[in-house]
Amino acid sequence: MTLPDIHVLPPHVARLIAAGEVVSRPLDVVRELVENALDAGATRLEVDLEGGGLGLVRVRDNGSGIPAASAGLAARRHATSKLAPDAASVDAVTTLGFRGEALWAAAQAGEVQLVTRPAAQVGACEVRACGDEVEVSRTSAPAGTTVSVRNLFARLPARLRTQAPAAAEVREVTALLGRYVLHHPGLYWRLCVDGDVRLTHAPGDHRGAVASVYGPLSANRVLTVVADGVRGVVSRPELTRARRDRMHFSVNGRPVLAPPELERAVIDGFAELLPAGAAPLCVLDLTVAPEDHNPNVHPAKQVVALADLPGVAARVQAAVAAALASHPLARAVPALIPPAETASAGAANDSFPALTLLGVYQELYLLAQGEGDLWIVDAHAAHERALFEQFGRQMTAEPPTELPEPELLHLTPEQLARLHERAPELQGWGLTIEDFGAGLARLRTVPATLAALDVPRLHEQIVEAALGDGPDPRRDVLARLACAPALKAGMLDHARGEGVLRALAACEHPWACPHGRPTVLRLSERDLAHSFGRRGVRDVPRGRDAASGPAR
């Protein structure tokens, strides 16, 4: 194929391709407008979305407003009040937004209406911008600024076709606003989606922000962190997660994707108080000198470069360690849960061997013999796999249980967004959750096989897993609830071990627990003979080694 000569695109064609370098989705518009409002000193921010933001994004604030003499420049490219017109100012940024492209980019992608008035000014200005056309007129309005962006990408059909579904975009915007709430807890926040209030926060402290975003149970388990350049909260050791998705950092007021060094600093601050692989909840606001950070290294300004990252990490670790050292951290003894009945015998996976139990080690591991090899079975992981498959079979075989009294549960804004996205899917397998307003949901039905489980905080755990951020809520619910009643260390004896082996043999997928950990390990007699230096008949491959090919 022969390509034509290289040429420069005319401006009107280039604009259609690159319109709005900082605006590729409604989430970008929300971020840019919120940061403008924060830079204007707003103490009250209200965000409205319609149609997932494609129909309307509106941000209303009570900040300083734009003087009439400057309003006409607001939607021009590279017009900004946040940087002095010299190169040195780029190296000492003290605001959240500074490129002067937000309103211009929004006007390239949609239709912008800006109404603004400083408190000391008589009358307000209205700016309408679409593409490079800007109109300015006078109007009346309260002090502050309201920016409305309508019909995003209506003139850019290729960009419009690639947009996420409305529910998914609302979920992302809710998560974004939640992060701003966490890092700016002293402000009033409200998010309204298609006329429905999804997130509200009254001015308070970091603990109150955690309550608004993650609920009061989490807020009651956080400790205050106050140190030089580090402020916020960290969770007590009993409030942890397997992932780091609730570790939040800001640098000079900007929520950022933290470098791994900062996340590791928090975890190291806990030292032995955290089990391996666990992560706490934290909201930490870091303050550095303007010249010691570069906020312009990421298109969406979500990453900042720190001049002294090791020094900042050391301060974070020391601050977290000091906060933990100043509080009593004794944990309550968990209640032991009796094991559920194991599944009936019968091999469902032909590749799994017939195992004969030899003994129990440390009341957790089973030593078994099969195919001439020694097998070590993690009884908890094996029992968890058996329960997981058992629950999955029973869930579809029995009608759901309707609760005598619907239970009200507190949802975070992100969970509420996922509920609107997943409600039909959840109801399809017996879980009926209804939005009750004011951050609450009403639990009406639960799968019958789960309703009978003797698990602490059963309904809360079901809802948390069903509205988590995993791609398969049904699997997440079953995996979580299979873990709770599975045999723990100290609960295993020979009889229960036999039952676990029978249940594992009956599984369709017996090789790993629902969380991906192996259920069994195999030590061949040949490898054992090699370890003892034996040669001869004991050095001959047997069982799976004989079937897998020539001797090694």
Automatic annotation (TrEMBL):
MutL C-terminal dimerisation domain mapped to chain residues: 357-493
Keyword vocabulary terms for this entry: DNA damage, DNA repair, Endonuclease, Hydrolase, Nuclease
Keyword Heme: no
Record Gene3D superfamilies: 3.30.230.10, Histidine kinase-like ATPase, C-terminal domain (3.30.565.10), MutL, C-terminal domain, dimerisation subdomain (3.30.1540.20), MutL, C-terminal domain, regulatory subdomain (3.30.1370.100)
Keyword Transcription regulation attached: no
Domain DNA mismatch repair protein S5 stretches: 210-325
InterPro entries: DNA_mismatch_repair_CS, DNA_mismatch_repair_MutL, DNA_mismatch_S5_2-like, HATPase_C_sf, HATPase_dom, MutL/Mlh/PMS, MutL/Mlh/Pms-like, MutL_C
One term of GO molecular function: endonuclease activity
Family classification: Belongs to the DNA mismatch repair MutL/HexB family.
Functional note: This protein is involved in the repair of mismatches in DNA. It is required for dam-dependent methyl-directed DNA mismatch repair. May act as a 'molecular matchmaker', a protein that promotes the formation of a stable complex between two or more DNA-binding proteins in an ATP-dependent manner without itself being part of a final effector complex.
Name by which UniProt lists this protein: DNA mismatch repair protein MutL
Species whose genome carries this gene: Deinococcus depolymerans
